[in-house]
Task: structure prediction
Amino acid sequence: MLKTWEGYLEPFQIFGNLYFVGNRFVSSHIIDTGEGLVLLDSNHPECLYMVTEGMRKLGLDPANITHILHSHGHFDHIGGTRALVEMYGCKTIIGREDVPYVTGEVDLTWAKELGYDAYIQTFCPDIVLDDGDVFTIGNTTFRAVSTPGHTPGTMSYFFNVQDGDTVYTAAMFGGAGMNSMKLAFLNKYGLPHSLRENFPLSLEKVKDEQVDILIGNHPGDVDTAGKWAQIQAGEPNPFIDTTALTRRLAYIRKQYDDMIASGE
Ligand SMILES: [Zn+2]
Result:
């Protein structure tokens, strides 16, 4: 099995001011707001160099990251944050219910499950989001929609991206892995079963959103690598796809139904 740092993926421009700087396992994205860079998820700590080197390769200076936005408080999405905060003074943003995860108040970052002794690179979020919060950084307005299940504070994001005069709505569903909704995990950490039972409501909540570009929480969610290959081959940008969210939600629902049916 590949180590996390062996999962190199070429960084690339998805569309206009939106870039992929993650790896094969976990997504990290940059939104260039014209007044600083927003990093959406900071990846595993040992993969932070891939994020920053990937940015440099694209001509983006990591020192210009003004904000780190987090989809949820799991180790593979928050692991690089503390180092970036200390290096560059970035402001950090996360959903309210996941704040105790990243401050270390509770031991729920999935660090142990991912092979670490503990989560120690804690940080104190500067901006805490609630359902429906809208905030603007530079030329980009983000809307946070609470979609709990994978974690209580999982946030899905909707935001404008632009290339010249062309503006699209981009989105990320904030977390859909069934791993943290299985009964064994919930019981182990004393988490309420309502997290799992109410997850279909999170899918329902965003199903009518109009989205032009869906990005993945993990690259496999939207076949990020395959789409990059298509772009390189000169095909029309496959990220621009107004049906992607609907298909993604249907896939997640199937995963969920399979989990429920299995009794796990
Ligand atoms: Zn997660």
About this structure: The chain has a mean pLDDT of 96.
